[in-house]
Amino acid sequence: MMTPADQSTLDYAIGRVADHFMFGIYFDLSRYLIAAGVLTALLLVFRGFAEARKIQLGRRATRADYTRELLSSMRTVVVYAFVTLAILVGRETGVILMKVQQASLWTIMWQFVLIVLAHDAWFYWAHRAMHHKRLFRATHLHHHKSRTPTPWTAYSFTMTEAVIEVAFVPVFLFITSQLGIAYAGYAILFFIWHQMIRNVMAHAGSELFPAGWVDNPWTDWIATTTHHDLHHSSGHNFGFYFTWWDRWMGTEHPRYREAFRAVTNRVRDPQPLAEPAE
């Protein structure tokens, strides 16, 4: 028989779980709406620039595309909220080590770099695996219905893909915790926002990076909007933040640099960008 003390403990636990879950919904929905909404607004305000830098000429997202992306993104938010709940519960039970108190700038910096590098590797291999013919339809086909991506494509996943995408965070934090590394809250926060911003930039549909980016050895290893846009139109380029995994594995689009140059030089030389060869 449950005692009043047991009931009080249960009520407290349920309340904490509910609070954590609602926080996950609020946080993930907010960052998706803010990042995609701000970029959409900027593309509308600077419409001339956006049209001159449009990557896929003659093809535009339809209202049905936007509706599908928004509805499936709400499902992704719920999946992410459950994972956020698991991380917070893991922290409270000591399975995941996180420091919410202030950490040194150096700690935040190296932890941020480490998690970005790890996530880029996770994304490349998980993404490439989802393109396997036995997995594609069940995991990744829905995302590729957005052949002409928009900022709202960023969260347009099946439930299975959403789980694969977000699983990186608890797996990474669990592994680092077992190694005795307590991750700084700010390092996680900066990573999460960096991931969201880069995600909507990759799906902008218009090239956001400056001309010459792919020809400069200091910047050509950072993936551009064209890099991921070619993935949606041709199936190459599985990387996310950086280009090196695609280079190492031979999966980079053979005309990536040519396509980027054509788009970024279009203001001065308004020639249409030919459909990239597969």
How would you summarize what this structure contains?
With 278 residues, the protein is an all-alpha fold. It is 63% helix and 1% strand.
Report on the architecture of this protein.
The chain contains twelve helices and two strands; from the N terminus they run αααβαααααβαααα. It has helices spanning 4-45, 47-52, 63-93, 105-130, 136-139, 141-144, 159-166, 168-178, 185-202, 225-234, 244-249, 256-264; strands at residues 98-99, 183-184. The chain has a two-stranded parallel ribbon with strand order 1-2.
Uncertain runs with pLDDT below 50, 5 residues or more?
Answer: 268-278
By secondary-structure content and strand pairing, the structural class works out as mainly alpha
Q: Calculate Rg over CA atoms.
A: 21 Å
Relative strand content? under 5%
Provide the helix percentage: 55-70%
Return the average pLDDT rounded to an integer.
89
Q: Quaternary status of these chains?
A: single chain
Task: Tell me the overall shape.
Answer: globular
Count every beta strand, where a strand is a DSSP E run of 2 or more residues: 2
Q: How is the main sheet built?
A: 2 strands, parallel
**Topology as a string of helices (H) and strands (E):** HHHEHHHHHEHHHH
Question: Which strand order do you get reading across the main beta sheet?
Answer: 1-2
Number of helices: 12
Kindly report how far apart the N and C termini lie. Answer: 67 Å
